[in-house]
Amino acid sequence: MNKKLWTRPLATAPFLAFVVLFSADPAHAVGGCLRDSDTDQVQIAPKATSFKEQARSVARQQAANSWQDVVWRGTEKKCASNSPGNCNYSWSVNKTTSFGWAVGGQVSLGNASSPSKKWYNFVLSLIPSIQKSSTISTTETFEQPVPPNGFGQPWQVVQRRWKSGDYVGGWVNQNRACTFGLNQAGHVYTWDPNVRWGYWQANIREREYDGIAVNGKL
Fold first, then answer.
1. Distance (Å, rounded) from C-alpha 69 to C-alpha 156?
2. 212: burial class by Cβ within 10 Å (0-12, 13-18, 19+)?
3. Number of H helices, E strands in the chain
């Protein structure tokens, strides 16, 4: 048999070992050679384009109280001051409101920081309150008694709370150089699902609701 047919697969084995998973066995770490251009050689990379595992955000503390933001107020109805009793008003509401907020807090990448700050937008997306926009849709009929000299008004409300936490899970740099693909410089990283890093604080949107406010209170 041609000797070259035996030796050719062996010559490529060291290269393949760096670009595939170390092991599919859960008892062994998932890892591989990640490009320096993808990771900036940071100590912890929140995600890797080659693998499915990625970091997640975890809330560690929260404010005792939440607060309400009114994102829409409809037309008021006033009950006359000389009314002999409550005015029973009815509202038919069909309204969709879009809203959104900036971070309203702070984010530190910790040992995932890099000169290009390439992970910043990614970790923002992990925090549940960071949304470019959201909507409340109200389509219903309300009936509400309003006291004499009082006001009734349909509202849409967002309830928010300050929370803070960190990030869990990351690709840990093993400080060993490797080559990815066609001579692209890289480092060996392994996935650690328990490593904690960074810090975030933000306004978390907990829920939204609608209803009729009487004298400014739902």
1. 9
2. buried
3. 3, 10
Query: Is residue 36 a contact partner of residue 194, using CB atoms and an 8 Å limit?
Result: no
Task: Identify the sign of the CA torsion 39, 44, 48, 54.
Answer: negative
Name the pTM for this structure. Answer: 0.70
Distance CA 156, CA 210 (A): 4
* DSSP collapsed to 3 states, 38-70: HHCCCCEECECCCCCCECEEEEEEECCCCEEEE
- DSSP secondary-structure letter at 25? S
- State pLDDT tens for residues 88-137: 999 999 999 988 765 567 889 999 988 878 898 899 888 876 665 688 99
Backbone dihedral angles phi then psi of residue 111, each to the nearest 5 degrees: -80, 15
